[in-house]
Amino acid sequence: MPSEETKERITKVVDVARTVLHYGWIPLIIYIGYTRSSPQPTLIKCVSFSSCKLFRY
């Protein structure tokens, strides 16, 4: 059986990982879409989402 201290550490690691995943998921998807698109749009065009081909269907 793990000790109480080990359980607390695991719980804290899971909480931190959950927070990182929660706030980092959408920026990761946008970054992957930006780097994998062809032709790669400029960042200035992507600030205006309506003119960025990355977000068009």
TrEMBL record:
GO terms for cellular component: mitochondrial outer membrane translocase complex. Keywords: Membrane, Mitochondrion, Mitochondrion outer membrane, Protein transport, Transmembrane, Transmembrane helix, Transport. GO terms for biological process: protein import into mitochondrial matrix; protein insertion into mitochondrial outer membrane. Transmembrane segments: none annotated. Pfam families: Tom7. It comes from the Eukaryota. It is a single-pass membrane protein. InterPro entries: Tom7 (IPR012621). It is found in: Mitochondrion outer membrane. The keyword Transmembrane applies. Its main location: mitochondrion. PANTHER family: MITOCHONDRIAL IMPORT RECEPTOR SUBUNIT TOM7. Belongs to the Tom7 family. This is Tom7-domain-containing protein. The lineage of its organism: Eukaryota, Fungi, Dikarya, Basidiomycota, Agaricomycotina.
